């Protein structure tokens, strides 16, 4: 299913008067509105192929119907999101869940939908049907060299698929670790993992990056071999200049100061990619901005400040991706909400008066520093984000159009009620 451009324009037209009033107000309130609008239009967030179906938990899964049955249908779904918000112009694939049978056709279909291929994701956290050796006790850390070899070869195969599609990054997330004290020799696990990653790194094309994603716990509950940003940075530093740390918001212990982690990784030139989601307890994979919006703002504030300090391009110099999937919402509505939350928070971070903040910091004026940050956070930037979206050809209110056009009902009609997206 597609939503015609004229339909989106019709809906926009109905809202125009009210929108213009709100836009005039905010443009009056803030400095450099046009510059912010351009940055918002340039900023794209990649959608992972596994977020298009209803997520499951280990207790159950409640499908909503009309889920994409193939890579082609996943691209179609992201194309719908992008048509509505003009900010979801990339897709991140997971191998082996989304092996492109015919790379040229898949590339052409993505291009028709205005999408490019973001980072490729490998999977050595599950055993696949027919797989020779098991990852039950880890993949790249494994005591058996043959298991490590299998994991290395899988990652090299993922790079090969990525090259065919025009991707330029590989994200490696390992579930390797241990569940009980004594199970694992920590240094040996690290060295095996480093050696395996080095062999994958050696197969990276010159223009590619490797993202080493860390996670504090789950599925292993005693130790994780890439467990925090320190360990990831250690691997990335040992690997070389094409290797970076990837920060996933849900992969920290409770109350970790993620904004400080981001600031220091940027300082070291080692922040490569970012996975957005939100959480209350652990890796809850909830909608971005739904639980801790102020934390998200503080993180974005450091991202903008740190990238500007290094002269980085916000839109292109980091890999931005949503990594969330859960049980109770229509996945496409959830993704529209997540992208909206990201754009709103990015806009607020762009508004922060950094010169004043710097002065407050140098004067130890703690009260003023808080006032400056919260003034930005409490600014209603919804009209700015909507304006950027409309100028790019999207909808002023994407979620409202999605519902009025009965997208989910149409997808269920087309695909059926009992479909299950691959990989979940
Ligand atoms: Mn992730």
How would you describe what is shown here?
The chain is an alpha/beta fold. It has one domain: Divalent-metal-dependent TIM barrel enzymes (TIM Barrel, Alpha-Beta Barrel), CATH 3.20.20.150. Helices cover 48% and strands 9% of the residues. The protein has 15 helices and eleven strands. It has helices at 5-29, 33-42, 71-85, 103-112, 145-165, 186-202, 229-239, 258-267, 293-309, 331-351, 354-362, 366-377, 382-391, 398-404, 407-415; strands spanning 46-48, 90-92, 116-117, 120-121, 169-173, 177-178, 209-213, 223-224, 243-248, 271-276, 319-322. The strands form three sheets. The protein has a six-stranded parallel β-sheet. It has a three-stranded parallel β-sheet with strand order 1-2-3, with helices on one face. The chain has a two-stranded antiparallel sheet with strand order 6-8. Strand 9 (243-248), helix 8 (258-267) and strand 10 form a beta-alpha-beta unit. Helix 3 (71-85) packs across helix 10 (331-351), helix 8 packs parallel to helix 9 (293-309) and helix 11 runs antiparallel to helix 12 (366-377). It is globular, with a radius of gyration of 22 Å. 46% of the residues are buried. Bound molecules: manganese (II) ion (MN). Manganese (II) ion binds at residues 173, 213, 248, 275, 323.
